Amino acid sequence: MRGVLVPLARHRTARFVAASTAAGLVVAAGAVAVAGPWDGGQRKAERVRAAAADRGHSARSAPGRPPAGPVLAAPAAGGRPPAASDVASALEPLLKDAALGSHVSASVVDVTGGGRLFGADEGAAVTPASTIKLVTSAAALAALGGDHRIETTVMLGSEGIVLVGGGDPTLTAHPAPSGERFASLPALADATARALKARGTARTRLSYDVSRYAGSAQHPIGPNDNLAPVSPLMVDEGRLDDSDHGPAERSADPAGDAARKFAELLGERGVRVDGSVEEGRAPASARRLAAVSSAPLAELVERALTNSDNDIAEALARQTALADGQPASFDGAGRAVTARLSRLGLPTDGVRIADGSGLDRSDRVSADLLARLLAHASDARAPELRPVLTGLPVAGFSGTLRGRYQEDDGRGLVRAKTGTLTGVNTLAGTVVAADGRLLAFAFMADGTSDAEGAQRALDRLAVGVASVR
Question: Low complexity bias: where (predicted)?
């Protein structure tokens, strides 16, 4: 059974490129030229879902709101990039905003030519917060490709069945709506019950296997509403409420909870689970009985970036580690992600990947790395990295930028990943400049004391890039 990550009735987040006819948002072809099912610069499925979602959004919009600028407007064919002096004139006054605190670094790169148009301490490795998800996502895509899927399997051994976690945090305990297919525990229970009954079995023992990951499951920040314990087996990201993104109370034992839920589902399907459900290992002689698969990795990346999903980001880091033969732990993932950056030819001086989500304050990357990564993801020669761009929130319309740029010229123009920790505010993304040139940027402030003021200052910097001719 192949899984596709789609909104449930409870999943109200629109994927992932906003398009609002009523608001005048135009998505033009050309900024992202890739092979695949693209139409007008975005995936066809995204266009349909986003249009439907934004019909509802536009009905709630305040009357008289000015039209948005074009998202992913077509870059100018040929021509010259903006002059570095013009970019500096636009950005240097904005970098002096007191809300940015004691230290801010910046980098602006011309996507077409690859040259740096502006830099301010751009090589300094600083705490990136959630903009590190760009790094995690690019590494996973480079290691595995966008079509890779993460399986959750049931193995049959001599002493019963084993539920084996593969590392899919989007596996859900909710049933799939009619006509939709994605990785759900009820679907796995359906397939498992059918297979057991076909063997004449109506009762079994059940254990669960989390050996795919190594090291501590607990993030260094400790128990936190922003992240479940990092386990290869969980349902609905270990959330204890009905949310699908953002902070929420999490299970302290997501793997055990998932396995116990699976036992309950089997019972509902006429298969009795004997005894208690305990952690174990699938024996080498075990046979595959049933499986479900996650959405393609490309879609997981898009969701991780749009919603700044920490659980998916940590899973992506561990999938990279597994692909590179490293232990699927915080340390192993850090080594694997760093190695992938080097193979992509990106600057890694001072880089430290302590986690995949950016919640660890000891993470270190530079503005130059982030801007160059985005430029590389825009290169037609690296189509496997394109979800790094398509997953970026759209200013004023989607994801973590939905509530920003509401009264700004950048609404609908800027696509960027946000980053926020106490004292740290970052923004990295792409924008089409006034003359039609696609530019990549990264701004990182790591000494802030006014988070909202810092966000507004970063947003003005992105608009400043867009204004350059």
Answer: 70-84
- The DSSP result for 277-319, as a single string, is EEE----TT-EEEEEEE-S-HHHHHHHHHHTT-HHHHHHHHHH
Q: Give the integer Cα–Cα distance in Å for 358 and 270.
A: 44
**Cα–Cα distance, 30 to 33 (Å, whole number):** 6
Q: Buried (b) or exposed (e) across 5-28, using 16+ Cβ within 10 A? A: bbbbeebebbbbbbbbeebebbbe
Q: Which two tokens stand for residue 271?
A: 């298969």
Sign for the CA dihedral angle at 231, 236, 242, 248 comes to positive
Q: Are strands 424-432 and 38-39 parallel, antiparallel or unpaired?
A: unpaired
Determine the 3-state secondary structure of 388 from DSSP: helix
Cα four-point dihedral sign 15, 306, 302, 65? positive
Selection from 421, 423, 413 nearest residue 459 by Cα: 413
Considering the entire predicted model, what is its pTM?
0.86
Mean pLDDT (10-residue bins), the chain, 469 residues = 34 32 33 32 36 35 36 54 96 98 97 95 98 98 97 96 97 74 89 97 98 96 95 97 93 98 98 97 96 96 97 98 98 98 97 98 98 96 96 96 86 95 98 92 97 96 94
Assign 3-class secondary structure to 41-76: CEEHHHHHHHHHHHHHHHHCCCCCCCCCCCECCCCC
Neighbours of 294 (CB within 10 A): 26
Q: Name residue 414's amino acid.
A: V
Query: What is the rounded (10 degree) CA torsion for 295, 155, 197, 190?
Result: -20
